[in-house]
Amino acid sequence: MDSAKPRFGIIISMFPELHETFILRELVALEKRGLQFDIFSLQFPRDPITIDDAIRLSEERTTYAKLISVTSLSAFAKTLFTKPIKTLRAIGKVVWVGRSRPKDVLKNLAILPLTLQFHAIGQARGIQHWHGHWANIPTTACWFLQQIHGVSWSAAIHGEDIFSPNSFLSHKLDDAAFSVVCSGYFCSHLQQELGLQRPADIHLNYHGLDPRVMQRSAHRSFNARDVNSRLKLVSIGRLVPTKGHDVLIKACALLKSEYQIDFELQLIGSGPIQAELEALAQAQGVTEHIQFRGGLAFEDVLSTLEDADLFCLAPRLIPGHPPDGIPNVIAEAMALRVPVVSNRVSAIPELLEHGKTGQLVTVDDVDGFASAIAELANSPELAKSISDAGFDKVAQLFDQQKNIDELISLFERYVPGKVV
Where are the beta strands (DSSP E) in 211-309? Predict the structure, then answer.
């Protein structure tokens, strides 16, 4: 190990997690740049690990341990004995600040013994800085280590739990060296709405796109469609109310009845409301036009996108449900030069500018969504213009190399020593 370089401890709720491939890509990119780090997973993986990089990192760099064990309880007891005031003060602050959300308090306290076990391991390995992914439990683990052991830490925020009443979050972020957040929408919320003491230490840092998308996009051009051919639509997302698939299905009914457009929609994803959406398609008279594909392997998702004329997603915000920032599928479609129709909600307008880089519709506006699809279907020139401009926009914002450079520069700014 190069003693001149600080070693990082990366705390994640569960590594790897199927829907968090953006974290995996970031870790692989940081590894290639020479960042020295170990991963600490608060939970064991629930699904089989199938991605080669995830298998390698889980075997070579990741520490797993039970939430409660003799080792973790021993670490807690030792810390309580050697640093009683700091330990009890940290526990008291969690209880007091989070008293309006007792379930969250219990979750935060439950990981303390394991966190202290991880610290003992990290101390033996020479870890000097901790970095927690997501706004909830992993950042609490890092905060505990800072409060009790005085180590430095930073947060990577991806949207989880930042819009719900969570007074503890502002306390944590005020104590972090810095935080990065994956969209301007989320970044502005944290800087302006939480009353942070140092809002300037919240930094925007977009995720990079999967290299497989960029490899394919390098050889892609706009797929011009004959206006008399069947319109091929694709939508990708879990079958849950926040994704707005019901709006898209109703818009498809209007494509058939009012716009007289022959189309097919491939709906990729699985979820609890599939039967409800299938019943809606039947009631709207578009069953024969819609294929419910279920979950697909990523390569199959990309192949389906490449064959599409338009990508459609109609998400909405629902109280109590974490909002999407910029859905990865929108960025992936744009990178593959597929024009996108979506909603003016959350961080999506950071990518889609109506009529230029995409088509934006008001949330739950079925008529507007159908009209936006029909306009692109009937105007190949507009579709190509949006395809070209959309590709340029996503290539600018989601450049993996540029975004990793920005993240490393933040580490070098806030963490003592030459990082890479």
Answer: 231-236, 263-268, 290-294
